[in-house]
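Reopening: C-alpha coordinates for the guanosine-5'-monophosphate complex, inputs below.
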Amino acid sequence: MSATRQPQVTVLAGPTAVGKGTVSTYIRDNYPDVWLSVSATTREPRPGEQDGVHYYFTDRDEFQRLADTGQMLEWAVVHGRNCYGTIRSKVEEAAEAGKHVLLEIDLQGARQVKASMPEAKFVFLAPPTWEELVRRLTGRGTETPEEQQRRLETAKLELAAESEFDVTIVNDDVERAADELVGLMGLVPHQR
Ligand code: 5GP
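Re-run output (same inputs, fresh job):
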Protein backbone atom coordinates (compact mmCIF):
# COMPACT_ATOMS: atom_id res chain seq x y z
CA MET A 1 0.00 0.00 0.00
CA SER A 2 1.43 3.42 -0.87
CA ALA A 3 1.78 5.96 1.91
CA THR A 4 -0.77 8.26 0.34
CA ARG A 5 -3.51 5.70 -0.19
CA GLN A 6 -6.61 6.16 1.93
CA PRO A 7 -6.71 3.49 4.66
CA GLN A 8 -9.48 1.04 3.90
CA VAL A 9 -10.20 -0.05 7.43
CA THR A 10 -11.88 2.30 9.90
CA VAL A 11 -12.36 1.42 13.54
CA LEU A 12 -15.18 3.05 15.50
CA ALA A 13 -14.88 2.82 19.27
CA GLY A 14 -15.93 4.88 22.26
CA PRO A 15 -17.37 4.60 25.74
CA THR A 16 -20.21 2.35 26.66
CA ALA A 17 -23.68 3.76 25.82
CA VAL A 18 -22.31 6.50 23.57
CA GLY A 19 -24.34 5.12 20.67
CA LYS A 20 -21.76 3.22 18.56
CA GLY A 21 -24.32 0.56 17.77
CA THR A 22 -26.95 3.11 16.74
CA VAL A 23 -24.51 4.97 14.49
CA SER A 24 -23.29 1.76 12.85
CA THR A 25 -26.86 0.46 12.40
CA TYR A 26 -27.75 3.74 10.72
CA ILE A 27 -24.76 3.33 8.42
CA ARG A 28 -25.66 -0.28 7.62
CA ASP A 29 -29.19 0.78 6.70
CA ASN A 30 -28.28 3.91 4.73
CA TYR A 31 -24.81 3.44 3.28
CA PRO A 32 -24.59 0.16 1.37
CA ASP A 33 -21.09 1.11 0.19
CA VAL A 34 -19.79 0.67 3.73
CA TRP A 35 -18.81 -2.90 4.57
CA LEU A 36 -19.75 -3.22 8.23
CA SER A 37 -17.92 -6.08 9.89
CA VAL A 38 -20.14 -8.74 11.49
CA SER A 39 -18.56 -9.82 14.77
CA ALA A 40 -18.66 -13.20 16.44
CA THR A 41 -20.12 -13.24 19.94
CA THR A 42 -20.99 -15.68 22.67
CA ARG A 43 -23.95 -13.64 23.87
CA GLU A 44 -27.48 -14.80 23.18
CA PRO A 45 -29.31 -13.15 20.26
CA ARG A 46 -31.75 -10.41 21.22
CA PRO A 47 -35.22 -10.45 19.66
CA GLY A 48 -34.94 -9.59 15.98
CA GLU A 49 -31.20 -10.24 15.73
CA GLN A 50 -30.19 -12.58 12.92
CA ASP A 51 -27.17 -14.83 12.76
CA GLY A 52 -24.75 -13.58 10.12
CA VAL A 53 -26.42 -10.18 9.91
CA HIS A 54 -26.03 -8.63 13.36
CA TYR A 55 -23.52 -11.12 14.75
CA TYR A 56 -22.25 -14.61 14.21
CA PHE A 57 -23.65 -16.22 17.34
CA THR A 58 -21.23 -18.85 18.54
CA ASP A 59 -20.81 -20.93 21.67
CA ARG A 60 -17.79 -20.52 23.92
CA ASP A 61 -15.96 -23.55 22.55
CA GLU A 62 -16.24 -22.35 18.98
CA PHE A 63 -15.22 -18.82 19.98
CA GLN A 64 -12.22 -20.17 21.86
CA ARG A 65 -11.25 -22.26 18.86
CA LEU A 66 -11.37 -19.21 16.57
CA ALA A 67 -9.25 -17.22 19.03
CA ASP A 68 -6.75 -20.02 19.66
CA THR A 69 -6.20 -20.63 15.96
CA GLY A 70 -5.44 -16.96 15.27
CA GLN A 71 -8.62 -16.40 13.29
CA MET A 72 -9.60 -13.32 15.30
CA LEU A 73 -8.16 -9.95 14.30
CA GLU A 74 -9.08 -8.91 17.83
CA TRP A 75 -11.34 -10.13 20.56
CA ALA A 76 -12.35 -9.12 24.06
CA VAL A 77 -14.61 -9.94 26.96
CA VAL A 78 -16.99 -6.98 27.03
CA HIS A 79 -18.64 -5.81 30.26
CA GLY A 80 -17.03 -8.78 32.00
CA ARG A 81 -19.51 -11.16 30.48
CA ASN A 82 -19.52 -12.21 26.84
CA CYS A 83 -16.79 -12.58 24.24
CA TYR A 84 -16.88 -10.51 21.07
CA GLY A 85 -14.40 -10.70 18.21
CA THR A 86 -13.67 -9.74 14.64
CA ILE A 87 -13.02 -12.54 12.17
CA ARG A 88 -9.72 -11.69 10.53
CA SER A 89 -10.20 -13.34 7.13
CA LYS A 90 -13.47 -11.56 6.42
CA VAL A 91 -12.01 -8.14 7.16
CA GLU A 92 -8.84 -8.78 5.17
CA GLU A 93 -10.80 -10.05 2.16
CA ALA A 94 -13.09 -7.01 2.18
CA ALA A 95 -10.18 -4.59 2.56
CA GLU A 96 -8.25 -6.32 -0.24
CA ALA A 97 -11.34 -6.06 -2.45
CA GLY A 98 -11.19 -2.29 -1.92
CA LYS A 99 -14.29 -2.09 0.24
CA HIS A 100 -14.77 0.62 2.84
CA VAL A 101 -14.50 -1.53 5.94
CA LEU A 102 -15.95 -0.39 9.25
CA LEU A 103 -15.38 -2.17 12.56
CA GLU A 104 -17.59 -1.17 15.48
CA ILE A 105 -15.81 -2.61 18.48
CA ASP A 106 -14.95 -1.85 22.08
CA LEU A 107 -11.83 -0.06 23.23
CA GLN A 108 -9.85 -3.18 24.12
CA GLY A 109 -10.46 -4.46 20.61
CA ALA A 110 -9.50 -1.12 19.04
CA ARG A 111 -6.14 -1.27 20.83
CA GLN A 112 -5.49 -4.75 19.46
CA VAL A 113 -6.32 -3.64 15.91
CA LYS A 114 -3.96 -0.69 16.34
CA ALA A 115 -1.18 -3.10 17.25
CA SER A 116 -1.72 -5.34 14.21
CA MET A 117 -3.13 -2.88 11.67
CA PRO A 118 -1.68 0.55 12.54
CA GLU A 119 -2.56 1.93 9.10
CA ALA A 120 -6.27 1.72 9.91
CA LYS A 121 -8.14 4.90 10.81
CA PHE A 122 -9.20 5.09 14.46
CA VAL A 123 -12.32 7.09 15.23
CA PHE A 124 -13.48 7.86 18.75
CA LEU A 125 -17.20 8.42 19.22
CA ALA A 126 -17.68 10.83 22.13
CA PRO A 127 -20.82 11.93 23.98
CA PRO A 128 -21.69 15.65 23.82
CA THR A 129 -21.15 15.83 27.61
CA TRP A 130 -20.52 13.48 30.54
CA GLU A 131 -24.04 14.23 31.83
CA GLU A 132 -25.50 13.11 28.51
CA LEU A 133 -23.54 9.86 28.66
CA VAL A 134 -24.86 9.20 32.18
CA ARG A 135 -28.37 9.93 30.95
CA ARG A 136 -27.99 7.52 28.01
CA LEU A 137 -26.53 4.83 30.20
CA THR A 138 -29.12 5.02 32.95
CA GLY A 139 -32.01 5.85 30.60
CA ARG A 140 -31.67 2.53 28.80
CA GLY A 141 -33.23 0.92 31.88
CA THR A 142 -32.00 -2.54 30.97
CA GLU A 143 -29.28 -2.83 33.61
CA THR A 144 -29.43 -3.10 37.41
CA PRO A 145 -28.14 -0.10 39.46
CA GLU A 146 -24.97 -2.08 40.29
CA GLU A 147 -24.40 -2.86 36.63
CA GLN A 148 -25.02 0.80 35.72
CA GLN A 149 -22.47 1.92 38.31
CA ARG A 150 -19.94 -0.57 36.97
CA ARG A 151 -20.51 0.66 33.41
CA LEU A 152 -20.10 4.30 34.50
CA GLU A 153 -16.73 3.45 36.05
CA THR A 154 -15.75 1.73 32.81
CA ALA A 155 -17.02 4.71 30.78
CA LYS A 156 -14.76 7.10 32.74
CA LEU A 157 -11.72 5.02 31.85
CA GLU A 158 -12.89 4.71 28.25
CA LEU A 159 -13.34 8.48 27.86
CA ALA A 160 -9.74 8.97 28.95
CA ALA A 161 -8.63 6.96 25.89
CA GLU A 162 -9.76 9.58 23.38
CA SER A 163 -6.22 10.82 22.77
CA GLU A 164 -5.23 7.37 21.43
CA PHE A 165 -7.49 7.95 18.42
CA ASP A 166 -6.88 9.77 15.13
CA VAL A 167 -10.11 11.71 15.25
CA THR A 168 -13.15 12.29 17.48
CA ILE A 169 -16.75 12.48 16.34
CA VAL A 170 -19.28 13.85 18.81
CA ASN A 171 -22.49 11.85 18.80
CA ASP A 172 -24.85 14.78 19.26
CA ASP A 173 -27.14 13.49 16.51
CA VAL A 174 -27.01 9.98 15.04
CA GLU A 175 -27.46 10.95 11.38
CA ARG A 176 -25.01 13.81 11.60
CA ALA A 177 -22.39 11.67 13.35
CA ALA A 178 -22.89 8.86 10.81
CA ASP A 179 -22.51 11.29 7.91
CA GLU A 180 -19.32 12.68 9.40
CA LEU A 181 -17.98 9.15 9.78
CA VAL A 182 -18.70 8.10 6.19
CA GLY A 183 -17.13 11.38 5.05
CA LEU A 184 -13.98 10.46 6.97
CA MET A 185 -14.06 7.06 5.27
CA GLY A 186 -13.82 8.77 1.91
CA LEU A 187 -17.47 8.36 0.91
CA VAL A 188 -19.85 11.15 0.03
CA PRO A 189 -22.35 11.77 2.84
CA HIS A 190 -26.00 12.18 1.92
CA GLN A 191 -27.34 15.65 1.22
CA ARG A 192 -29.74 16.94 3.89
P1 5GP B 1 -23.97 -5.56 22.29
O1 5GP B 1 -23.96 -6.79 23.11
O2 5GP B 1 -24.76 -4.46 22.93
O3 5GP B 1 -24.36 -5.81 20.86
O4 5GP B 1 -22.45 -5.02 22.22
C1 5GP B 1 -21.76 -4.78 23.39
C2 5GP B 1 -20.39 -4.19 23.09
O5 5GP B 1 -19.58 -5.10 22.34
C3 5GP B 1 -20.39 -2.89 22.28
O6 5GP B 1 -19.62 -1.94 23.02
C4 5GP B 1 -19.66 -3.23 21.00
O7 5GP B 1 -18.86 -2.15 20.56
C5 5GP B 1 -18.78 -4.38 21.44
N1 5GP B 1 -18.40 -5.24 20.31
C6 5GP B 1 -19.22 -5.69 19.32
N2 5GP B 1 -18.52 -6.44 18.47
C7 5GP B 1 -17.25 -6.46 18.90
C8 5GP B 1 -16.04 -7.09 18.43
O8 5GP B 1 -15.99 -7.77 17.41
N3 5GP B 1 -14.93 -6.89 19.18
C9 5GP B 1 -14.92 -6.13 20.30
N4 5GP B 1 -13.75 -5.99 20.94
N5 5GP B 1 -16.02 -5.55 20.77
C10 5GP B 1 -17.17 -5.70 20.10
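The two ends are 34 Å apart (CA to CA). Residues 9-184 form a domain with the Rossmann fold fold (CATH 3.40.50.300). Marking as resolved unless the reporter disagrees.
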